Amino acid sequence: MNIKNAQQEMRGNFLGGFTGQLVSGMIWLASASYRLWISPRYALGVLLFGSMAIFPLTQLVLRLLGRSAEAGPSHHLWSPGSQTGFTISINFLHVGAAALYNKDWFYPAKMIIFGAHYLPFITIYDMELFAILAGLLVTAGTGLAFYFPSSDSIGAWITVLVLLIIAFIGRTDVRNEEKP
C-alpha cells in the first residue's frame, strides 16, 4: 500500500479524526464540569482516566457509526497512529509535575501535551487541520500558563471548544472527499 492510499484509508475509516476528537472533547467537558461544579480532585481523575479511555471509546463510537475502526493488515500507519494516542496517559507525569509546582497549571500543561500529540496525525491522516489543532492547543496552553496563571478551568473549556470545532471541520472535509 502506498502512503497516499494509506492516508486516505485513515481519513475515511476514522472520519478525519472526528470521533477521537469528539470523545476527547466530551472527556474534557466532563472534567471541566467536575472542576466547576463538583470537585477539582475529581476533575483531575476524570481527565486522567478519561484520557486512558479515548482510544477504546473512539473505537466503540466508530463501530456504532458503522465505520471500520481499523486499517488493513498491511497498513503502515495504524501502528504509529495508535501508539501516538498512548503518549497522552504516559505524559500525565509531566502534567502532575507542573500541577505540583502550580495547581492552576494542570489544564494548561495538559493542553500543551494533548496538542503536541496531534503533530504526527498531520502525516498519518495527511491533514493540515491537525497542525492547526496542535498549534491552537499548545499556544493556548502556553499562554494561559504564562500570562493567566490563575485561570483555573478556562483551559479545559477552551480545549473543548477547539476539539469540537476542529472535529466537525475534519468530518466535513472527509465527507466531501468521499462524495462521488
Written account of the structure:
This protein has 180 residues and is mainly alpha-helical. The protein has one domain (8-66, 76-178). It has helices at 3-13, 18-37, 40-64, 78-90, 92-101, 106-116, 119-125, 129-147, 154-178. Helix 2 (18-37) packs antiparallel against helix 9, helix 7 packs antiparallel against helix 8 (129-147) and helix 8 (129-147) runs antiparallel to helix 9. The longest helix is centred in the N-terminal third of the chain and has 25 residues, at 40-64. It starts with a helix and ends with a helix.
Which helices and strands, and how do they pair?
Elements (H helix, E strand, L loop, with lengths): L2 H11 L4 H20 L2 H25 L13 H13 L1 H10 L4 H11 L2 H7 L3 H19 L6 H25 L2
Q: Gyration radius, to the nearest Å?
A: 16 Å
Uncertain segments are none
| Secondary-structure element series | HHHHHHHHH
Mean pLDDT: 83
Shape: elongated
The main pleated sheet reads as: none
Count of discrete structural domains = 1
Give the distance, in angstroms, between the N- and C-terminal Cα atoms.
Answer: 22 Å
Helix content: over 70%
Number of strands: 0
Structural class: mainly alpha
What's the tally of helices? 9
Strand content: under 5%
Brief summary:
This protein has 180 residues and is mainly α. The protein has helices at residues 3-13, 18-37, 40-64, 78-90, 92-101, 106-116, 119-125, 129-147, 154-178.
